[in-house]
Amino acid sequence: MENKKKAANPYEDMLTMPHHISARHPSMPMSERAAQFSPFAALSGYGDAVEEAARLTEEQTELDPYEQDKLNAALNSIRQRISDRPEISFIWFLPDARKQGGTYMQETGIVKKIDLCRRRIILESGTEIPMEDLFHIEEISKEMLSP
Question: Is the entire prediction scored with pTM above 0.70?
């Protein structure tokens, strides 16, 4: 019967033994010990792929000819008054580099140059807006800026 008791818990004698401390190897710091149990990413890049798929984009709105004519008239007006340094608010479509669609951007600034060869509007901040992606132009009047 005594043999059966020992077989039931063969490690019982080890429970009362003191913890072994090696004289040859220094103990591992707690910060490194925790690293042993850090999560392992079996599928590297999977989280990034899921995040990219979840990112939303918008489709570019196609302007009708009437709206396109309004934009062209506004651009001509700005080009004629460029020496007055007009402050303009622009909304344009920025295509997404990775997937179909894109997002609408808005920036207000002073127009530095309208480059007709490259079809770009260049603001004093350095922002370049492609004319073919313009959606809306609005001039900021001086009265609106003063208190």
Answer: no
Alpha helices in the chain (DSSP H): 2-8, 30-35, 46-54, 65-80, 142-145
- CA distances for 46 relative to 54, 55, 59, 113, angstroms: 12, 14, 26, 44
pLDDT in tens, 69-96: 999 999 999 999 888 888 999 999 998 8
Handedness of CA 69, 75, 80, 81 (dihedral sign): positive
Tens digits of residue pLDDT in 4-45: 555 577 888 888 888 888 889 888 888 777 777 777 666 777
CA distance 111 to 126: 10
Helix or strand or coil: residue 73? helix
Rounded Cα distance, 86 and 76, in Å: 13
- State the Cα–Cα distance between residues 96 and 61, nearest whole angstrom: 14
Contact 123, 86 (CB under 8 A): no
User: Which whole-number Å values give the CA distances from 35 to 29, 38, 41, 77, 124, in the listed order?
Assistant: 10, 5, 14, 64, 50
